[in-house]
Amino acid sequence: MTEYDLVVRSRRAVTPDGERPAAVAVRDGRIAAIHPHDAPLDASLDTDLGDLALLPGLVDTHVHVNEPGRTHWEGFASATRAAAAGGVTTIVDMPLNSLPPTVDPGALTAKQEAARGQCHVDVGFWGGAIPGNLAELRPLHERGVYGFKCFLSPSGVEEFPPLTPDEVRQALEVIAEFDGLMVVHAEDPSLLLDPTGPTYPEFLESRPGASERRAVEQVIELARQTGARVHILHVSSADCLEPLAAARRDGLRVSAETCPHYLTLAAEQVPEGDTAFKCCPPIRSEANRDLLWEGLAGGVLSCVVSDHSPSPSDLKIPDFAAAWGGIASLQLGLPAIWTEASKRGHGLPDVVRWMSANPAALAGIPRKGGLAPGNDADLVAFDPDAANPVDAAGLHHKNPVTPYHGRVLKGVVRTTWLRGTTVDLTAPPRGTFL
C-alpha cells in the first residue's frame, strides 16, 4: 500500500510560512504532510507543477447563489462550476435573493434540498436577520449557519427588509448569547438619495461614502454595547477605515472586508451606460481605491471576497438609477486581485491570506484556508504570469454579465483539487455541505 494518495510538488507553494518549494502530500482527502520539494515519496499519483504556484483553495464567504426562487439569476450548479474554475473551493451562500430567504430553519432546509447534488465545491450557509425573526436566530445557529446577515438600508428585495439600529441591537444581544457572528451591509439610509439621472456620476453621488461611515460607526457602537462579534461587508469607501482602525485599537470584535471590484475598478473607468459596473455600495474613485489598498495592507480590512451578485442581462438596463445592482465575478476574483496586487508590490502569500486564510478564520470554517497538515487537500495550480483575457460568454456564471469583459487579467487557474481529487466540471459534483 502506498503511503500517500497524491503528492503535488511546486517550486512556489504558498504555505502559512510563506512561498517556498514544497511537496504537499495527501491522504484520505487531507493534507498529511508538507515535505521538501525534491523528497522521494511513495504516492499513487505524484504531480510536479514546476514553476506554477500551488495555493490553498480560496474561501469566498460572500456569494449570492439565488437558488431556489431566482435560479435564472444564478444557481448552485453554475455558481460552483465558476468557483472551481476560479480556484475557489469553499463558498458561503448569502441568505437573500433566494426564495424563500434563509431566515428560519425551514428556509435553510429548502435551500439545502435545492443545492443537494449540484455543488462542485464545498458550500456553507449564512442565515438572515430581518424584522421579526429574533426567535429563529438560535435555531438557525444550531442548524450550522456561519452567522447572520442584516441590512441597515433597503436590500433591493422586499422579502429581506432592513433592520433599524434598535433591531440590530436586539439581534446582537441574542447572537452574543451563543457567540455568533453578525455580518452587516452598512449604509445609513438617511444619507442615501434617489439618483437624479441615469448616469454613473449621478448614481455615485446618490450613495456617498458618508453613508457607509455613519453606518459603520453605528455598528461599532452597538458592538461595544453588546459585546457581539460583527463584520462589515463589502467596504467600498475609505471613509470607513478610520473608525474601523479605532475599533481594532479598542479591542472590539469588529472586522471588515472589501471586494475585488473596489480594489481593481474605479469610477473614472466606468463606461457610459455599462451597468455591469453597478453595485451597492458603489465603485468609487481611483484615489479612494488607493486608500482601500492601504487599509488592506495594514490589516484594517482583513478579507477580499467576491460579493458575487449576478442577474440576467435584462435587469442590467443601461440606466444606473434603475438597473439591478450587483457584480458577477466569482470566477475572476483571483486573477483580478493578483493583477492589481502584483503591481502594488504584494505577493501571492498576501493574496492567499486575504482570500483564503482570513475568510476561513472569519467564518470559523475548520480545515480550510491553508496548505497545512490536517487541512482538507483543497489545492489550486495557478499560473501567475499567464495572460487571462476575459470573455463573459466563456465564464461559467449563468449569465454573461461582468465588468471585467474585454479586460486582460494576469494569472490563470490550471487545476483545482477538492479534498485531494481534481475537480472535473463534466463529472458528477463532489462538493459537500459544511
From TrEMBL:
Top EC class for this record: hydrolase
GO molecular function: allantoinase activity
Pfam families: Amidohydro_1 (PF01979)
EC number: 3.5.2.5
InterPro entries registered for this protein in UniProt: Allantoinase, Amidohydro-rel, DHOase/Allantoinase_Hydrolase, Metal-dep_hydrolase_composite, Metal_Hydrolase
Cofactor or coenzyme needed: Zn(2+)
Subunit and interaction comment: Homotetramer.
Name of this protein: allantoinase
Naturally occurring in which organism (per UniProt): Nonomuraea roseola
Organism taxonomic ancestry: Bacteria, Bacillati, Actinomycetota, Actinomycetes, Streptosporangiales
